[in-house]
Write the structure tokens for this entry.
Amino acid sequence: MCWGDKTPAPSASGAGNCPPGSSAPCPLQCKPIVSIAITAVKFLSDHGLLKDYDTDWKDGGAAFPKPEWTPAKQAPISHTMDQAVQIEVTLQVTPADACPETGTLHGEGPGGMTFEQTGVSFKPGEIKLTLTSDAAHKVEKKIQELNFQISWTSPGTSVSVSPSTT
């Protein structure tokens, strides 16, 4: 069956098929997803006040760039204690002619903090998801330097998300 975005539904053989007499254009085949890659994590609940300046105690330098995490670079953030963390995760699904899959993006952060969105359509191209940490696990109420590592999984999809840790 063809979808409104003209992407074929995967069948057992991996080929898309159209209803007889359909006038909608239908590709003959879509391919399995090869990669679900995390390309960026932006901390939406960051104060945005930290600057890349360590010459002296004066206010100088530019604010650290967003997104705060990419495979190539990571930047610090500041966050209010006892508050949930909100992030925007950017994913890249390949190949361009991959069959869409529906699954979950699940992340586990420090102190048991979880980020999760179910019913995600992992379709080819760039996907941006806004996730908020669960209410039971907020940033601990103390001044601290926290290594905010998140371990990621994608239950319900044919491939694992990579990298598995940001």
Notes: The first strand starts at residue 35 and ends at 43. DSSP finds no helices and seven strands in the chain.
